[in-house]
Write a structure and sequence with these properties.
- The chain has a single domain, classed as Nucleic acid-binding proteins (OB fold (Dihydrolipoamide Acetyltransferase, E2P), Beta Barrel).
- The chain is 8% helix and 50% strand.
- It contains one helix and six strands.
- The protein starts with 5 loop residues before the first strand and ends in a 26-residue tail after the last strand.
- The relative contact order is 0.21.
Amino acid sequence: MSLNRATVIGYLGGDPELRSLPSGQPVVNFAVATDEAFIDKQGQKQERVEWHHVVAFAKLAETCKEYLKKGRQVYVEGRLRTREFEAKNNGGKRQRTEIVASRVQFLGSPPAERTDASVADEPPIPSADEVPF
């Protein structure tokens, strides 16, 4: 028996990018940053950031594109997949390990967008009962 499961809680490094596969199925990509604080051998506090590439398909992809923005905290659950691709500019073959999301939960409040007004009207965030995952 084996298990391929990944779970991360972190912050989006950029807005999700939505595309369509040749079949027409929507796919979204985004990166989630997690951090770790530790004390090094010299007794100094250090912090390390790890970036996780996430991909989601179908309705989950569309929902992520609609509600996720750079800086938003998110919980992602899925499986790890390593894929090989040809790098741009004749860079040769590269590999990328990514999380294929089966569940994405939006945490905290969405990051405030910069506006000239002191208070911006934002659409309400759907309740957990309204989100289709």
